[in-house]
Amino acid sequence: MSLTLARSGKQSSNQRAVDREFVLATIEALDPSTRLDGADEGAIAGHFQALIEDLIYRQDAISREEWRILGEILSPEEFEALAQLTEDEIEAILDEWRSQYVATPYESLLDAQVEDQPSDTAGLLALATIGILWLWSPSRQQYRNTRSGRYLPKDRGIMRDLLTEEVDRTSNDLDRLSERLLSGRSSLEEWQEEVAQLLRERHTRVALLAVGGQNGMKPGMWTDLVAEIQRQFDYLRGFSMEIELGSQSPAQIQSRLRLYARSLRLTHEQMRAIAHQEAGFGWVKRVLGATDNHCQECLSYAGMGVVPIGAIPDPGQECRCRANCLCRHIYGRSLEELI
Q1: What is the pLDDT of residues 181-210, one digit of tens each?
Q2: Which of 166, 245, 225, 268 is closest to 237 using CA atoms?
Q3: pLDDT of residue 339
Q4: What DSSP string runs through 72-113?
Q5: Nearest CA-CA partner of 302 in 291, 316, 290, 286
Q6: Could you give phi then psi for residue 309, rounded to 5 degrees?
Q7: How far apart are CA 286 and CA 307, in angstroms?
Q8: SS3 of residue 145 by DSSP
């Protein structure tokens, strides 16, 4: 902002005197301790500008204070501890999945047994008889139903529906937690822990879904998952600090939290990439998401066609879409398989 005492066009000496007196009177009203009677116009204009900018800052500060939610921010060490997964916690996460999908074909999906060699019809029926309803084929990276013998599609149909349901459910739960915080029913400390625990649980579920359930997860995959959860918690800690400073309005808090829900897609795709690479898949192709609003980076990755795994980032990484990315990758053991 630039202020001068001169108006455009010609001014009479009387007009300039009126302007000067008006500005001096305004400065005195805003800052009675200031005396600028003998100052030149530049000094007066500079002081006037500084006072106006200070008023704007103080008004902004009042607005920030209105949304400020005071409380302790969890330390990096506390968030790191929350990111860890014990056997009991993993079993509790699996129990919640079973409870959510009870009496559906997908109740025991995350309990799938690893199928090293394809089973014949008799073998499948025998497994179904003893209650094993799902197998996981590492060589195909697909679930197989023992009753029908059919494989679930890798990255579309019911698999995409299950992932979308996880994202939507998490978004609704985060909305509920934000409402508790904004209404004062949860403290900032409680809110951080509740959000962290929810995110840890849901990222684990979509990771398990991507790699064949608990029996498909290898030790290195657990390490990768915990690292991704920790990365999300780093974002959450920064977000919590912004809330405590008052720089986030209620609408902004709810909007930001929905991005955390959408980040489940990123974890799912990241774990799919790791599992496919470990299973010997060497090629990948970007498929654009079901939207007309693609960022330039995603269009570029899709335009590259079939490339070696690692040549393009996982969906949501290194693109402007980030957590909003709806793209997916399809994998092949050979170049010809994806052409």
Answers
A1: 999 999 999 999 999 999 999 999 999 999
A2: 245
A3: 86
A4: PPPPHHHHHHHH---HHHHHHHHHHHHHHTTTSTTTTGGGPE
A5: 286
A6: -55, 135
A7: 9
A8: strand
